[in-house]
């Protein structure tokens, strides 16, 4: 099932509601990110690995009773069900025909905020438990996981502030977003002869790691400025469909960025696109538009160029084409700071 569709396609409200519950849970970003990845099937469960032909075993490491897929782990696994039950969350029945993601959205909708938080922590803990079994052959039973989750929640209650990364950064470098938000860089390549453009955009977390990326070809584009504005629109639409609710959108077109940030109505040729961007922006919990120099937008620039070789929209999850990965690596300057 494709969750992150074409940037032009709107996902239904229930999916947005589900993502919102996950991102707004009061847990450290590493927990909500892990839970999100787990749910979105971006983690290498065995069935994912076998699709990539790295076959090992297919049995669920927790219950040994079924094939390990994320659908199994989230809605069907007896081990997971008993952990949830032990923490006061009863998983409703899911018939095999029911879309499991829709089922999950109903589950989140039917419980209160504090339980939603518990569930996010459970999914994170389940994934850790499963990995400890796989890599360290350490086995935990449901009771131990229940104890772990309870004491972790207890610890969170005692914390006033979620830890913040120091933000001493040089403005001459790409800036990572704050720990509870994501940065979306966008750019466009434009071909005057054919009046076509390719938009490219990528979402990164506070560690500068790529969460998702896309490229998208466009026809009937008047000029480079329109191409940049379209790229901005498609990038924030993409981020929204992928469930990111707090973002910083960053591009290297000063004209486009300042038009978006201006209060009064834009009356230029690209005003319809600027208007659409502002409308789309209303769907975020928090969004800011930032202009950067071209050199600092290198990853999105590489994507917009790379996308030229495709006639349709391309989407990458948790990775990007090598040229883009390389650019993103340079952006993570603080990981290997120069002397
Ligand atoms: Zn299982």
UniProtKB/TrEMBL annotation:
Transmembrane intervals: none
Residues in Reverse transcriptase zinc-binding domain copies: 19-82
Identify the InterPro entries for this entry: RNase_H-like_dom_plant, RNase_H-like_EbsB-rel, RNaseH-like_sf, RNaseH_domain, RNaseH_sf, RVT-Znf
| A GO term for molecular function | RNA-DNA hybrid ribonuclease activity
List the Pfam families hit by this protein, alphabetically: RVT_3, zf-RVT
| Recorded superkingdom | Eukaryota
- List, for all copies, the residue spans of the domain called RNase H type-1: 185-306
Entries under PANTHER family matching the protein:
BNAC02G40300D PROTEIN (PTHR47074), POLYNUCLEOTIDYL TRANSFERASE, RIBONUCLEASE H-LIKE SUPERFAMILY PROTEIN (PTHR47074:SF48)
Its protein name is Reverse transcriptase zinc-binding domain
Q: What is the lineage of its organism?
A: Eukaryota, Viridiplantae, Streptophyta, Embryophyta, Tracheophyta
